[in-house]
Structures are given as structure tokens and as C-alpha cells.
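User: Structure with FE2/S2 (inorganic) cluster, C-alpha cells only please.
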Amino acid sequence: MNIDPLHYDVLIVGAGGAGLRAALAAAEEGARVAVLSKSLLGKAHTVMAEGGIAAALGNLDPYDSFDTHFYDTMKAGHFLNNYRMVSLYTQEAPDRVLELETWGAVFDRTEDGRIMQRPFGAHSFRRLAHVGDSTGKELIRTLEYKILATKRVDVYPEVITTRLFLDDNGRAAGAFCYQRDDGRFLIFSAHAVIMASGGWGRVYKVSSNSWESTGDGAAISFRAGAELMDMEMVQFHPTGMVWPPGVRGILVTEGVRGEGGLLFNSQNERFMLRYDPERKELSARDVVSRSIFREVQAGRGTPHGGAWLDISHKGPAYIKRKLPTMYEQFLKLADLDITRERFEVAPTTHYTMGGLRVEAETGATNIEGLYACGETAAGLHGGNRLGGNSLGDLLVFGRRAGLAAAAYAARRPGTSSLSYSSIEEERRRVLAPFAIESGENPYLIHAQLQQLMSTYAGIMRSGTSLTDGLGHLERLSERANRMSADGGLHFNPGWGLVFDVQNMLTLARAILTGARERRESRGAHWRTDYPDEDPEEGRRNIVQTLGPDGRIKVRDEPVPEMPPDLRRLFDDPVSPGVKRQREEASRARGSEGA
Amino acid sequence: MTEDGFRGREVPIWIFRGDGLSGEERQYMVELSPGMVVLDAVLYVQQHEAPDLAVRWNCKAAHCGSCGAEVNGRPRLLCKTRMDDYMRRNEAVHVGPMKTFPVIRDLVPDIRKNYEIARRIPPFTPAHPAPFQLWPEDVERLKEFRRCIECFLCQDVCHVLRDHHRLDHYMGPRFMLKLAELDMHPLDTRDRTPYVRREGGVDWCNVTRCCSDVCPEAIAITENAIIPLKERVADRYFDPIRDFWRGRSRRPAPEPPEK
Amino acid sequence: MHDSLSHPSLSHQEPPHQTKAATERYFWIEPVLVGAALALFVLYSLWEVFFQVHGRYHNYLSPYFSPDLGRWLKIPVFPALWVAWVPLLFRASCYYYRREYYRAWFGSPPACAVPDRRTRYTGETRPPMVWTYFHRFFFYLSTVVVVFLWVDALHGFDFGGRFGIGLGSLLLLVDAALLSLYTFSCHAFRHLAGGNLNCYRCKPRRPRARYHLWRVISRLNQHHGLYAWISMFWVWGTAVYVRLLILGLIRDPRLLR
Ligand SMILES: Cc1cc2nc3c(=O)[nH]c(=O)nc-3n(C[C@H](O)[C@H](O)[C@H](O)COP(=O)(O)OP(=O)(O)OC[C@H]3O[C@@H](n4cnc5c(N)ncnc54)[C@H](O)[C@@H]3O)c2cc1C
Ligand code: SF4
Ligand code: SF4
Ligand code: FES
Ligand code: FES
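Assistant:
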């Protein structure tokens, strides 16, 4: 077998926004970079993002500022966030957005020729730089063409990582991969590895995520000794499509509500007025999701178990201009004209706030030479992600991880050594599914895992449901050990799914464990047996590691303490920008009166 | 909705199985569900009968452009093609890979060549870094071009590539779109017209408009990108009157072709 | 077992033929109809140009003979030829007609995703097809012709110094209108109107009028194909009508005298 490794300075697992941005940063530093991806270039999950990129550019609302954005993000995250990440993010996001523009992104414009920004749930101001309702596409296309024009970056599409190699000193040294089209094995050796492999929304049954979102990077790193954090925090987006069954879970962008869409229950009541009279439909995602869930539980759901969303009052011209993709999507897939009819929506698994625990400035994990960024990393979003903060996250922390990894790679001497035995061991593991006669069908195991997670660790959880879930998962994992594959090595999805499911089982265990550990309701984590926030619980992040015996070890990590000047921002019930705006307004009124 | 008439019925679907060397259509049975798209049917087969059936997909919502294939000989996105459309017309459903590209396996084509072309195109080169002042009027046109999801169905259907295999001479509609987008960007400083003609090979297109017909994003590739590019070529190479009128000097000197 | 990792390398063969569904089998209907219509039109035009010496019936002038250059210049042979080449070549180099005749006559391709009938294909890379790049000059000339068409259409209401309306007057008026629509929805004009600019607003000196003009032309241009067809049939019909009048086979009903 050919095991000549391919050598790079920086190996990036993932070609979503985070991976591509990291690659550009690393290449800029002079590193030779390889980018791996499960699908083709430009197809990563990021392409599906719709709403926009949150950055306090203040193009429409001059009172917006990074401290206001900081305030909104921390508040939405229920203070589980790493404030240093939030602070870096909110300060750097505007530059990252403008940089995209320099590279050719064409954002929607204001009348005076600047980047247009739209309102979004729980943002104080109009803040999301956007391109209609396909911002993720714009982002990834821009980065894609930038990457294509960058020397020193090699893209390996459809090359899938199954294992992270460490060297004798416990430093990240390379990865084992298989190439999807011909089933060939590729071994990479690198001085630094960046995990940018996205989230694991596919763990759940109803999900807005693509097949790629199986959390490979997180699971692989976890197995290699990296720490996972905040795994209990899974965001359920309030508005997923409900009907017909084939499209269940596909996202209806928050932009619909941003542009004025209203939610009704089956009794035609605008129920959000009841749950959050202040922000109504544009409340934080956890709040809206729970509200819809509660309405359905109370028997006020729509025919297929959701709520009505109505944007038709905005008129066809406006809707087609502002939400063209949504209009098309419903017309084509659901035979429904959203310019004239309301439509059903229900919560759908959308984003995983948890992930690899990283250092704020660099994205470094606890394994030397291993970095993480994007959805794979934890810390920025805390207990709930604010819409639009993910795309910005990819850019800000993608770049930071890229820079740090390149710098580290430059410091690290020689080539990284890979042990032959671990390569051989992995090769055997990867080929094993073919040897199992009449084993389990990975598609079935996957479906059962999704069912399990939706039942026991869905939007609503309790101590008993989580314990039961862990029990069931144990049994499912045992059966999963016998997953088998048919056919050959050439582009064989069934075979690939075996490893995806293994990764998802690992992460599912971490979700259940983390959720059982957090005895309170906070952000996206809603426990019926602990329905309220507990300030004590809010002071810790739950960190998990995998012991050599395959058991998960849980430990507490105190949430980083904000310095007093930032802390003080939260003494006010409103964000700093809104406060300034109100003060200014009252001063103006005062001077008018005088 | 036409849901329930078709619900639960078992229908056959023919799917190409094989690789670049050999293969055949095989029949599978799928259970119809309301609103089912062909991709659902293919994934159904994958789950129930043929776990190794190769197909590319990501978003299932016509956003990513992964699932391009041919249904009954027409290039289409599998995730956007409804089964009931065929059922209603009493048509059998035949699914095969895009014909213009070599087949890797089953429904998966090898489209690497497209990325090689993408790599050759000189990148966007603004006069100065952002922030830009760009007005809605000026980006309107670019927006349409940037809707492209890179499904390459247009490359598949274009007869210059499909029947005449001229990818070496003509970059194909997707990249005409890209070139138009770059050329029409108000802040791009490159003079791209010679490139469009020489490397791009715009003369190979005979404006028969099949690319626009199949584009799932309904981009008017021919009308809004290729023909305007041809007009720009005409400006440069076929308009002595215009040259006389304006004087060559007002044009930036043509750049040497990219290496 | 899958021990060997050597695979047959990817070949660049096409997948085997796929079965076509019923609707796909009728793709040829459109090109056949289009091809026949275009061919008949060309034949009729040639007949008008080469076999007819004049196109005037009192105050009506057949569109083939407008403007009546041959008579003004006292050129005795083929009077229509001195003008008719303009609209004919205008249409022959029109982007829309190109699409139609490439499909219908040359089968390149006959319909989308249907194999090209020609094995040697050069697109528009060499003469004569590369000359289609001169389309804009035919556009310039056609605008002149259109002006004369309007003049002649107005003449159509002038019955010996008195205003009147005959069926012919109306046909000629609509003819001028349709030909204007066709001419001014031309892609070359769209380009000249504003498509050649990259920026409509960044230089304040630039009149925004160009932008609006371009928008209007773009709007019209979307229906260019439709205008191409109706104007063609209308010209044809009008020419036949005038010809029949000249031949004395029919009489012009007067609607207003
Ligand atoms: C429908 C939808 C709408 C959204 N809208 C918004 C929005 O409006 N604003 C916002 O801020 N956020 C939005 N999000 C969230 C945001 O899009 C994602 O969180 C973000 O794109 C994640 O990017 P990423 O780069 O971390 O990972 P991804 O884009 O998921 O990319 C992961 C990459 O890793 C690769 N990969 C994974 N595993 C492996 C492996 N084993 N080997 C090799 N490669 C691997 C994949 O192929 C892929 O290229 C939305 C999400 C969805 C689903
Ligand atoms: S119009 Fe041109 S690019 Fe489009 S399919 Fe026809 S020949 Fe190809
Ligand atoms: S132009 Fe249209 S058909 Fe061509 S790749 Fe883009 S989206 Fe697909
Ligand atoms: S799966 Fe994304 S376009 Fe069809
Ligand atoms: S007349 Fe048809 S394009 Fe000019």
C-alpha cells in the first residue's frame, strides 16, 4: 500500500467559510496549505446560510457599535459565552465583511452606496450585511474564487478525514483520509491541523443541515484527546419547513421575520405578543422556538404540527426582491405562493453552539498543533447563537486560526513523523465494514439515532429523558459496531456513512452527557425538571474529554469573568447603542422644548 | 396540493448504475410521498435497496448545486424535480448522470475540469480596497450573475461542450457568466475583453440559449451575459467607426494573456 | 476483499444511451415548424425582391420597397434590392434569428440536450458567421429604414390629399410600429444604450439617463423574440396584401373616407 504522506505546513479539515478563510490567512503567512472537504469546493454547508453576516458597520443605524453588538451577543448567549471571543468578534467583524467586498462579494446596497444591513432576531439594530437571502452562497463563492486564485493552497475536494494522527509528543501531526471518487487512501502530514468541519445537526431527525454536518472534526479530535465544551447547547431554529415531508426541516430564513413576517397559531392569534411583547417575532431563537413548541403542545398547532408564518402583507414585489430564494423554494417544493399565502413552520435543528474548546485569540485546542474554528469550535455563542453571528464567526476566527496555525507551523521544526502502525491500524478500521457479513445497515442506525436524539434530547429535555437516552444510545452503539458496507471503494455513500454515524454516535453521547450535567434551563437548553436559570450553573462551562477506556470524563470550566468595564454594560436593561440613541433623542427633544 | 393521490403508491424508477467503462439502467421501486422530489426517490433507493448508490447532494433545497443529473434526458437538479410531475403525465422516470462529463460512478460525474477553468480566470482586481461606494443600480446586473449555484447544468447542456467536446476552446456558459460578472463590475480594473474572446472563446457560442433554458436559478445567461460580452467583443474588434470616434487611447492597453 | 487499491482509471467515455421519455421524442416539431416558416419567408422575400418591379399601390408602399430608393435613384433593376438587403441582413445577423436558424436549419443543436446534427462545428469563430459581429451596423441602417416606414405609413392615410383610412393604412401603421419594437429591442441597441457601461452612477458626470434608457430597452429586449416573430409575419402579411392589391386580386376596404 502506498502510504507516502503528503506534506503540508497547515492541514485544514473543512472547506466551509471557516476552513477557506483559515486557508487564506495561513497562505498569506507563507504556509503551504491543504484544504479537505467532504463535498466539492463551494458546496459546503455554509452555502446554505441565508440571512446575513452580523457586523456593527452602522451603515443604517449610526448608533450601532461593537459594544452594542457585544451586549446583544452576550445576552443572547445567556452569558455562557467566552467574552474574549465575543469582544474580538464584534470588533473585527466589520473589517472581515469589507474584506469580502474587496475580494468581489457584492452585497445589497443602501441608497447612498454602502452595504445594506437588515434587522434580525435580538439584534439591537439593523446589522446583517446580506445578499438577498443567499448570503452564505456569496460568502463561500467569494472565498472559493479567492482560494482558486491563491497559490500555495491545494484544495482536495471529496477527501474525507477519518482520523487525526498525533506524534510521539502528543502534537497534531497529520490525518488519515479517503478520497471519495476512487476510494484511495491519502495520508497527510502537517505541522498544524485546523478543524473547520462544521456542526453536527444531522444527529437530529428534523434538521436544516446538509449530509456533511456530522461533526467529524469534533468527534475525531475528541477521540484524539481534545476537549469538547457546551455540548448540551443545540440550537433549534424556530422556522423550518414542515410540509411536504420531503422538505421537512429545510430552513425558512429568519430574514422572513426580519422583513416583517408574523407568526400565528391555529386560532389566528399572534402568539409572540404573549411570549415576548417587546421583541415579538424578532425575539431570540430559543424563545421563538420554545413558543412555537408550546403552542403546538397546547393544541394550537397547524395541521402538520407547527405555526403559521405570514409575509404576504408585504406584497409580491417586495417579497420577490428581498426573499427570492424563499419564494422559489416554496413555490417549487411545496406548491405554495408565499406572496399570497401563509405557510407552516416548526422548529428545526440548526446549529451546534458547543464544540472543541479553544483559546479565544488563536483557536488553539488543548492538543498542541490542533486548532479549531467555525461551527466546530465552542465559546463564541454560549447558550444560544444570535442569527448572523455564525458567518461572521467563520471569517473572524477562521482568519485567526489560520494565522496562528501558520505561525505555529513555521516555529515547528522538521517534518512531522507519523507512525506506520497507527496508519495501518486506521486503514484496517476503515476497511472493516466490508468484512462484516450481514451487518447493520448504517442508514438504519442513523435514522434510529436521529429518532433517539429527537425524542430524548430535543428541544425539551429532562433528567429522566436524558438518562434513558444514554441507555438507548449505549445499545445502539453496540449494534453500530457491526455496521457493514456493500459494494466497492469507488464513491460509496453507504461505506462513508459508517464513519459519519460513528462520529455522530460519539457526539450524541456528549450531547446527552452535557445536557444531563447542566441542571438548569439556559438558552437553547430547556429542562422541564429545572425550568429556570440557575446563576450558579451559569458560572460554568461543561467540558468533556474521552478517557482511554472510551468513557467520557466531565469537568467544569469556569466561564471567563468579564472585566468590570464590560460587566458594567449589563447593568443597563438596554444595549449601549440603544441607550445612546435614547439619550440623544431626549436631548434633542429637550432642546426643542427650550 | 396534489398530495394524497400519489401517496403510498409504489412506482418504478430507473437509475443508471455503473462507471465510466460500463453500466446500465436498473429498475428500483420507491414509495411515493407527497411533494417527493427525484432526489428523495434516489435516496430512498439508497436507504432501502442500494446503499452504495452514488449520488451527490448537500442542501436538498436547490442552494448548493451538487445534485445536477439528467432526468429523462433533461439536465436538472434532482432536488428540484418533482416526482409527481412525471406521475401526472404518466411518464417513467429515468435518472442518469450528466452526459458531458466523465462518469465516476452512478450519478456522480467528474467535474474537476470546471474548477480548472475557474482557477485560470484572472481574479477580481479592484482599484482600491473596500469600503466601496456602489449603488443599487450598479450591482443589480451583477446580482443575477452571482445567483449561480455552480451546478454546471449549463455546461452539461451546452452543445459546444456536450457534442463537440470543445472545453479546450470554449470555457462554457458558467464561465461566460463569471467573466461577464467580472467585466461588468464597476470597480474591476482589468480589461477582460481580449480574454473573453481568446481564452474564453466566446465566438464558439452560437446563442442557441440552451444554457439559459436549464439554469435552475433562471439566470438569463445568453441574454444578459453572453450576448453583452459578444457586444463588447464587437466594440473592440468589429467596430471601426467606434474606434475612429473615440480613439484607441481611451481604452487601457490590452493586457498580455495570463500565464 | 478490498486489499488492492488499484482502480481502473477514470475513462472519459460517455455513459450508455439513456431511454428517452415520450415528451422528449417530439423535440423535432419545433425546429421543423420554425425552419419551414423561416424558409418560406426567405423565399417569399426573394420573390418580392427579384421578381417584382414595383411595390406601390396608390398611397400604399409595400414594406419591401420602403424607402423607395430604387425609384428615387432611377435604378431600373430590382428596385427592392437597394433597400431590402438591410432588413434581411439585419434579421440574418439578429441574435434571436441566429438561435432559431442554427437550431432549425443546421441542427446545432436541434433542441436542448439533443445531439448536434453536425459533426464539424466552428460556432461563430470564422466567416461567414463571425461577421454577425457587425450586427450593430445593420441596426444603424435599420433605424433609417424604420423612419421611412413611418413616413410611408403616414402616407398610407393620404388618399390624394385627403385623410382617409383603409385596411391597408392600418396594416402599414401596425407594421411600422411592430418593426420599431423589433428594431429597438435589439441586443446591439441595448448594449449601446447602456449595456456597455460598467457603472451608471459612480461618475456623477455620467447622465443617469443612460441607466434608465438601458432599463427600458432591457425590458423590451426580453420580448425580442416575440417581436421578431410577429413583426416578421406582419411584414409578410402586409407585403402580400399590397401585392394582391397591385395584382388587382382584392380591393382595399375603405374604413373612413
Ligand atoms: C439553512 C441555514 C441557514 C443559515 N443561515 C445563517 C445566517 O444567515 N447567518 C449566519 O451567520 N449563519 C447561518 N447559518 C449557520 C452557518 O451557515 C453555519 O454555521 C456555518 O456555515 C458553518 O460553517 P463552517 O465553515 O464552520 O462549516 P461548514 O460550512 O459546515 O463546512 C464544513 C466543511 O468541513 C468539511 N468536512 C466535514 N467533515 C469532514 C471530514 N471528515 N473530512 C474532510 N472534510 C470534512 C465539509 O465538507 C465542509 O466543507 C445557517 C445555517 C443553515 C443550515
Ligand atoms: S447559448 Fe451558447 S453557451 Fe449557451 S448553450 Fe448555447 S452555445 Fe452553449
Ligand atoms: S449558470 Fe445556472 S446552470 Fe450554470 S452553473 Fe450557474 S446556476 Fe447552474
Ligand atoms: S442538493 Fe443542493 S442543489 Fe440539489
Ligand atoms: S435585431 Fe435581434 S438582436 Fe439585434
